[in-house]
Amino acid sequence: MRSILTFVVVAIIMLTTACSEMTAPNSSENENYGNQRENVKIPEKKDYEKVVINPLVKVEGWKYPVSGTIEYWQNENLIATIDYGNGELDSIASKIVGGETHEIDLSESKPDYEKIITNPIVKVEGWDYPVAGTIEIFKSETLIATIDYGNGELDSIGTKTTDYGSYTFDMSKGK
Question: Do 123 and 108 touch, CB atoms closer than 8 A?
Answer without folding.
Answer: no
